[in-house]
Design goal:
Helices cover 23% and strands 23% of the residues. It contains 4 helices and 6 strands. Strands 1, 2, 3, 4, 5 and 6 form a 6-stranded antiparallel beta sheet that branches. It starts with a helix and ends with a helix.
Length: 184
């Protein structure tokens, strides 16, 4: 009888623990989709040659420059000014083969799935008042509440979530407006 009670108590504890950690809850499928979106996101830190970065890259004495906004605009489904409302998922920091403090490309930061609250639609499709996007592996991190005023996100359509374009994230809005031929 004691064994049955102990087993029942252990099972109850496991169910409560799994629910507290996100397992077994209704949003597990959504968390899985966010994780999958990050896993399949491109690595913009090492250049445009491949969607996934190689384990070892050629030595570079400096970080890569940002891509010209004119090159990214044709790929953008949405061009918006937005604030970072929430970080919905944050992937693990990528392992780059144990290399530390090595001269070369700027190491990428983790992939994230974030909710952006749109403050101004500049071009492309209208995403509404907010949009959930993937911040791919790139050398920056987005934080909830972070100031993004005066910058524009170029966002490529993607499944299940659109992907932020650009190696270093948002571009200055005047630069985007100029590339689009807009005046403020």
């Amino acid at each position: 009888m004691r064994q049955v009670l102990a087993l029942a108590a252990a099972a109850t504890f496991i169910v409560v623990l799994a629910d507290a950690c996100g397992g077994g809850s209704a949003d597990t499928e959504e968390v899985g989709a966010r994780k999958a979106a990050c896993k399949n996101a491109p690595d913009f830190a090492l250049g445009p040659s491949s969607p996934q970065a190689p384990d070892l890259v050629a030595y570079r004495s400096a970080a890569l420059p940002p891509e010209p906004v004119e090159d990214l605009l044709p790929k953008a489904k949405y061009v918006v000014e937005a604030s970072v409302a929430r970080v919905l998922y944050q992937g693990d920091k990528p392992d780059r083969g144990g290399r530390k403090n090595v001269a070369g490309p700027t190491p990428p930061e983790r992939c994230q799935v974030v909710q952006l609250d749109v403050t101004r639609m500049i071009a492309g499709a209208d995403p509404g008042t907010s949009i959930t996007v993937v911040k791919p592996l790139a050398p920056y991190v987005l934080k909830a509440g972070q100031s993004t005023s005066g910058t524009s996100f170029l966002v490529e359509g993607g499944d299940p979530f659109p992907i932020i374009l650009g190696r270093y994230g948002a571009y200055p809005s005047p630069e985007v407006d100029a590339a689009l031929g807009l005046r403020q």
